[in-house]
Amino acid sequence: MSAELGDQLDPATYLPDEDRVAVEPEAYRFAGVLLSAAYPSVDFQHFSRSGLAGSALYIASVAVSERGRVSQEEIACSVGTTRMSIHTHTARLARLATEEVDLSTYPSISPDVLQCLAQGQSVQRVLQERAGRSIESSSSP
After folding, report:
1. Which branch of life, at top level (predicted)?
2. Would the pTM count as exceeding 0.85?
3. Which among 35, 46, 91, 140 is most buried, taking Cβ atoms within 10 Å?
4. Of the ranges 18-22, 68-72, 96-100, which one carries the lowest mean pLDDT score?
5. How many CA atoms lie within 13 A of 67 on its CB side?
């Protein structure tokens, strides 16, 4: 495979410039690491590369900035894909993040949120549970 073709297939090449997307710098870096872990080891032959890049950005944004994160729609616009394409890849890439990426090098990444995304569950539920625990622990003597 030529280097040019390899670059076209690598979903990391579809990440927009960091200043074009409103995610935390650590989230942007984590998205690149996640895509590097995914490609070429995972078969993404029939998937949109921009959709994969958008999904990685969304996952990273949610895992770093649990509140005030960028929506799937905003990320879709910045990478040139659809919200549905991002949604399609989220669970698979989040699962890969929990299994293949050394999360200890990313202290602001929330493993709970990644697990939630990997299982296709609502992140809001995890955040509400955390808020409930925070309220309980702050009201303890």
Report:
1. Archaea
2. no
3. 35
4. 68-72
5. 4
Q: Which amino acid is at 62?
A: V
Confidence band (pLDDT; 50, 70, 90) for 7?
very low
Q: Name the architecture of domain 3-139.
A: Orthogonal Bundle (1.10)
Paired tokens of 125: 């539920």
Task: In whole angstroms, give the CA distance from residue 91 to residue 75.
Answer: 16
Percent of the chain with pLDDT over 90: 29
- Region of 2 please: left (phi>0), alpha (psi -120 to 50) or beta: beta
Q: Transcribe 2-53 into DSSP letters.
A: -HHHHHHH-GGGGSPPGGGS-S-HHHHHHHHHHHHHHTTTS--TTS-HHHHH
**C-beta separation of 56 from 94 below 8 A:** no
Quick one: tokens of 68?
A: 């005030």
